[in-house]
Amino acid sequence: MLKIGVSACFMYPDNRRPVFAPKTLSYLENDMAVYLSREGVLPFLIPDVEDMLLEKFMAEMDGFVFQGGTDVAPESFGEQPIENGRWKGDPVRDKYELKVMDLAVKSGKPIFAICRGMQLMNVYFGGTLYQDTTTQQPGVLEHRNAEKYDHVSHAIEFTKEKILQKIYHNNTAGRVNSVHHQSIKELGKHLEVLAHCPEDNVIEAIGYTKAPEGWVMGVQWHPEFSHTLGEKVIDPDILYDCFLGQVRLLKSEA
């Protein structure tokens, strides 16, 4: 059984909530749970626990997935919130998840980062983000619409001769959903662009160059939401198969 550690999303105390109102909840979004679960592959939610216990849990995992969710806080990449603090992000989750990312990278095990996960990966390696792509990059496409949500999509182009072009049958382009308003500004150290949006140059996928190709990779879109648009977007299973292939390779060598 492959054990895939998944970083948690947080929901904080809210008196308007009918259950667990005074409690912080750690959760795995259900489409993500379905996407990651396969015969012989079991996702585990990584809890926010004290460091010694976290290290022991992480050591038991075969690979790691960082899921989407709330913004990365500007303070986590050395900035102050713009627009009078409108985009505050989630510094509590950042602290937890950057710790998880550090342990995952140092473990040498495969990492697959999705949406916020890709942004967090960029910040971990010293990069920065546009706090709000629309206001800080005039003329960009609509990358997020709260009402349409995972029905928004756009074209992407794969970087030539890199991993995404290879696994997608040497195609040079495709189409993906878009559910984000933050995006990469300055690329982190030892990272490379694996895909971008040709209409506005927003970075759509990145990889870590100090690991084997595809071993540590992030995508800006949500493959777990791809079922909403079906054949209009690229096959999400190809991405996850690539990640699982890396996980199985490392496990077979252990």
Structural commentary:
This protein has helices at residues 30-36, 51-59, 91-107, 116-124, 133-136, 163-167, 236-253, and strands at residues 2-7, 9-11, 25-27, 41-46, 63-66, 111-114, 129-130, 153-158, 173-177, 183-184, 191-196, 203-208, 216-219. With 254 residues, the protein is an alpha/beta fold. The chain has a single domain (2-253), classed as Class I glutamine amidotransferase (GATase) domain (Rossmann fold). The strands form 3 sheets. The protein has a 9-stranded mixed sheet with strand order 4-1-5-6-13-12-11-8-9, sandwiched between helices. It has a two-stranded antiparallel ribbon with strand order 2-3. α2 (51-59) crosses α3. The longest helix is centred in the last third of the chain and has 18 residues, at 236-253. The radius of gyration is 17 Å and the shape is globular. The chain starts with a strand and ends with a helix. The model has no long low-confidence stretch (mean pLDDT 94).
Number of separate structural domains: 1
Low-confidence stretches: none
The radius of gyration over CA amounts to 17 Å
CATH superfamily caption: Class I glutamine amidotransferase (GATase) domain
Largest sheet: 9 strands, mixed
Helix content: 25-40%
Structural class: alpha/beta
User: What would the principal axes of the Cα set say about the shape?
Assistant: globular
Residue-averaged pLDDT: 94
| Secondary-structure element order, N to C | EEEHEHEHEHEHEHEEEEEH
Mind telling me the CATH class?
Answer: Alpha Beta
Strand content: 15-25%
The total strand number stands at 13
CATH A-level architecture? 3-Layer(aba) Sandwich
Q: How many angstroms does the end-to-end distance come to?
A: 14 Å
> Might you state the CATH topology name?
Rossmann fold
Main β-sheet, spatial strand arrangement: 4-1-5-6-13-12-11-8-9
If helices are DSSP runs of H or I spanning 4 or more residues, what is the number of helices? 7
